[in-house]
Design a protein that fits this description.
With about 80 residues, the protein is mostly beta strands. Helix content is about 15%, strand content about 55%. It contains 2 helices and 6 strands, in the order βαββββαβ. Strands 1, 2, 3, 4, 5 and 6 form a 6-stranded antiparallel sheet that branches. A hairpin with a 4-residue loop joins strand 2 and strand 3.
Amino acid sequence: MRFEFTEEQKKNGINMIEIEEDELILEGEYVEGEGKNYVITGIATIEGERYHEFQVEFELVEEPSSESLEDIMETEWEWYDYLC
């Protein structure tokens, strides 16, 4: 499934991901996937440079309690990888 972030969700920061060890901030535009496996696509800022259509694949520790962006984004990640 594909889940688009609404303006309200963006305003509340639900679409923001920070990966400190890589000095990466991702402003998510949408999430695709189901179960425990997802890909978030958005605009990444790395060392001051912005990259559009940047994708991060991730697996959740457990399935979210519902198929909502809030529940998906609030669930802890097991692992992640950058897609090229």
